[in-house]
Amino acid sequence: MRQLSAIQRDLLYALVGLKQPSGQELRTELEHHYGERVANGTLYSGLKQLVNAGLVQKQPRNGSDRSFVYTVTEAGKQRVDSHIQWASQFRPDQSPHTAPTNE
User: Fold this and answer.
1) Domain range annotation of the chain
2) If you compute the radius of gyration of the chain from its CA atoms, what whole number of angstroms results?
3) How many whole angstroms separate alpha carbon 53 and alpha carbon 75?
4) Contact, 14 vs 23, CB < 8 A?
5) How many CA within 13 A on the CB side of residue 74?
6) Do 65 and 44 touch, CB atoms closer than 8 A?
7) Rounded to two decimals, what is the model's pTM?
8) Cα separation of 77 and 50, whole Å?
9) What is the three-class DSSP state of 58?
10) Do residues 43 and 27 touch, judged by C-beta distance below 8 A?
11) What confidence score (pLDDT) does residue 9 get?
């Protein structure tokens, strides 16, 4: 998986902070963040692609064949860390490229 969509990236971020959430728990988290409904197709397609890319693991919840929990893999954590490191260079208060202010 070369590039992540915004929803895939946000799913990874949520998975780093949550302990084995279900798809519904992830949906609730994203809907709270976005302030709007997240469609089933969008959520589960994003999760499936992350699982297929080896960034997320999907496991049955309590032996169920209809309910699953998701965990971020080490590769997924590295992807999040890499994105955070890249994005932080563009924050004015942390960027080494920021010009000095004349105050």
Assistant:
1) 6-88
2) 16
3) 9
4) no
5) 0
6) no
7) 0.82
8) 12
9) strand
10) yes
11) 95
Show the tokens assigned to 46: 């994003």
Helical residues (DSSP H) of 1-102, grouped into ranges: 6-17, 23-34, 40-52, 74-88
User: What 3-state DSSP class applies to 33?
Assistant: helix
Name the token pair of 5: 């969509």
Segment 56-75 shows an average pLDDT of 90
Q: SS3 of 26, please?
A: helix
State mean pLDDT over 73-79.
95
Nearest to 84 by CA among 9, 1, 2: 9
Both tokens assigned to 11? 């799913």
Q: Given its phi and psi angles, is residue 63 left (phi above 0), alpha (psi -120 to 50 degrees) or beta?
A: left
6-88 is classed CATH 3.40.50.1980: no
10 Å CB burial of residue 39 (0-12, 13-18, 19+) is: exposed
What interhelical angle do 6-17 and 74-88 show, nearest 10?
110
Other C-beta atoms lying within 10 Å of the C-beta of residue 62: 6
